Amino acid sequence: MEEQDLKLDGNAAAGLFRELFAFELTTARGRCDNCGAVAEVGAVFVYANAPGTVLRCPQCGNVLMRMAKNDGRYWLDVRGVSWLEVHA
Question: How far apart are CA 57 and CA 79, in angstroms?
Fold first, then answer.
């Protein structure tokens, strides 16, 4: 089987994303990509008085996630998180 036969577009992950975001994310644990600290999303610092919402590491202040909503669309940036663990 060729690599080309295994490659799908992003729509193939839609079901997985729907499952993932159906859970309570504040109890998910994540690792800061900057300092390595592990914390639940509910324990990070949130700054919501901007055009979007910014979540920062409680240990080093690194930006973990950025979220914005406008006209029924959402943007999610998770570059500051090495991994996110969600319990079903």
Answer: 12
Q: Which two tokens stand for residue 54?
A: 């910014």
The residue behind tokens 């998910």 is: 28
For 7-33, what is each residue's pLDDT tens digit?
A: 777 687 788 678 767 878 889 999 999
Residue 55's domain comprises 3-85
| Cβ 33 vs Cβ 80: under 8 Å | yes
Which tens digits make up the pLDDT trace of 69-78?
Answer: 889 888 999 9
**Residue 85 burial by Cβ neighbours in a 10 Å radius (0-12, 13-18, 19+):** exposed
Number of domains in the chain: 1
Q: What is the DSSP letter of 17?
A: H
Nearest alpha-carbon partner for 74 in 56, 55, 52: 52
Unique residue bearing structure tokens 């644990």: 29
